[in-house]
DNA sequence: ACAATCTTGACTAATTTTAATCAAATAAGT
DNA sequence: ACTTATTTGATTAAAATTAGTCAAGATTGT
């Protein structure tokens, strides 16, 4: 790791990853001490690496018993969204509907463009060389499983 | 070896060759010191010998802990590799063989870890709820199509 | 001699680190 | 309760640490 800010960033992200609810709560001075840097460096790291843009909410309190709390929200939202999609998919799924769902996932930035293309290909009727009604059932099963992979990663 | 730029070029290429992932990461000032030249000479060498044209990607960061990272990308090799995999896949494909291919693709850095997991899921017999021998045929078809998506992108 | 390439250094830009000062919340003393 | 002191985070600005650009001068090849 190249510099102190990166190290602290990694440390905090690790804490969030290990946490139950995508949250970490720290005492600024304590972390500064741990990494042997000035306290305000924590503010710098937070301001440059835990922005709202990147899906973090930062709350803090001063005074005795003060703290800084960093919450990662995007994953929650994404999880909710993916759960929603899972509910949407019934026993069967047409190619058109599947493609709409894939497009939606791409728009929601849950999957990359390449992943979208891969999944599109997988659920195409030309790829699944099976007759109806079985084809729609397999397609639903495939997409459900893919969503679960994304949902339960990390 | 006639001049400093050539020497530095050779040095960097040597580093890349010895590296695990066709990457070298340097500190500009440090290399300049090592070869007793001005730092900006590194920029010259990189600009003239590690161009995108020649298959290199250069990334950098300034400030404390800054760096210059040069990555060699072997697009041709990857294409050859993927073609090879396509030839490998016959009319049918067992889950075990498919998983080996997926692992290989991940090792070759042709797919990401997440993509590997997605594809693993898709080709699992639990996902493809079809009986043999049809299942192996569909699996082969799916993997072939996925590889083609990756092969013919961009 | 001419053209292309290389070397050098001054200046610029980005990023990180550090310190000083400010503001808010709590704790303590009266 | 009220005032004061202490603790703790926020903000800002300065300094330090890198890398990038550009252009003038030097060297080399033809």
From TrEMBL, chains A, B:
Can you give the residue ranges of the CtsR N-terminal HTH domain?
Answer: 3-74
An example Pfam family from this entry, by short name, is CtsR
Span of the signal peptide: none
Q: Does the keyword Repressor apply?
A: yes
GO BP annotations, alphabetical order? regulation of DNA-templated transcription
Q: Which UniProt keywords apply?
A: DNA-binding, Repressor, Stress response, Transcription, Transcription regulation
User: Which molecular function term from Gene Ontology is one that the record holds?
Assistant: DNA binding
Q: Where is the CtsR C-terminal dimerization domain?
A: 78-147
Q: Which InterPro entries match?
A: CtsR, CtsR_C, CtsR_C_sf, CtsR_N, CtsR_N_sf
Similarity section = Belongs to the CtsR family.
Q: What is this protein called?
A: Transcriptional regulator CtsR
Q: Which organism is it from?
A: Phocicoccus schoeneichii
